[in-house]
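Annex B. Sample input.
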Amino acid sequence: MTLSYRQPGVVLTDRRFTVPLDHDQPGGETIELYAREVVASDKAHQDLPWLLYLQGGPGFGADRSVGRPGWLGRALKEYRVLLLDQRGTGHSTPANRQTLPLRGGPAEQADYLTHFRADSIVRDCEAIRAQVTGGAPWTVLGQSFGGFCATSYLSLAPEGLATAVITGGLPSLDAHADDVYRAAFPRIERKVTAHYARYPQDAERARRIADHLLTHDVVLPNGYRLTVEAFQSLGIVLGTGDGTHRLHYLLEDAFVRTPRGFTLSDAFLEQAQGMLSYARHPLYALIHESIYGQDARPTAWSAERVRAEFPQFDAAKALAGDEPLLFTGESIHPWMFDCDPALRPLRETADLLAARTDWTPLYDPARLAANDVPVVAAVYHDDMYVDTAHSLRTARAIRGLRTWVTDEFEHDGVRTGGGRVLDRLLALVRNEA
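Annex B, continued. Sample output.
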């Protein structure tokens, strides 16, 4: 049974679908997908084309918005929108420390999670498309990892697409995770340098916090162990439009004077907990590096290994000298599974995924070279999360793809730019701009 309800300016409908866990075994185990249909109130009874929104991540459910904000408002001018909670996320069958033990031990859990990459998500989309559109192709809007999925869609099932719109999510077609992170750490350093140029007072604040963490055991209210590496990982926000400001306001509230001297404030610890915990999206940590696995090479905790090639990120060395403390960015490390109570029970599962040598290709270069689906991509200049050079190389490999390269926005431009980003991309893909 479907349930429809209203918010200001929109009609929402809850949709649920049953799909195979493994699409190569359609008669086997199934999982449930949840999606929220959104249509403008004044168009609720019109026959509109469909736009499928694929969220970034991996491991995040679709946006929970109210009304018609940002890109959604632009899309609703002409589309009926489906906000899909990709498998394992949001209101779809969950995959977390509470549910994964239903699979068995770590080996069984790791095997299960191999079915949560972009290729399976694309096959989910194709499995539900007939029920949603009656079989008509739809437009897909892929943000970040959603763009990785859209690229897989163009490779695996282009017949399902009327148009593909990608924002900040053109992946390398052949880079190993090591290649991704070797390109990432210099970008991260540039973002940190830019942050300290904007807020020079934060350089000393960051050093003071790091020094405190190196000499004290700090545990956040939820049981998360706040190590200096965990503190550095707060730099992940620097790739977003307001991230530099959010980090600044966090740092300025770090210390409070007590009868026993200065210590980290409750306000700082509470904010840090919200930014660091993976309780709401553990799948992101579990399968993040596997989105770059496409052959027999294991990912083998790639970000942790590659970080060692960039000694300037070593906090102890920075504090021993005069170098600024460098924050890190979008990377997953084994210590996270020791620090975070939402991840601790899954450490062995994560180790097994990191050691796998049976990853299969997610993209088909030959099919992409022969692409005939209208496709456009926003490529953000010096995007902290997705390497610009990798994206542009992929853009050249997809027949007919048009790019919009811009430094007006950061990685989250489709969300922060109102309707401007989507409006520009739709004009480009229709040859109206």
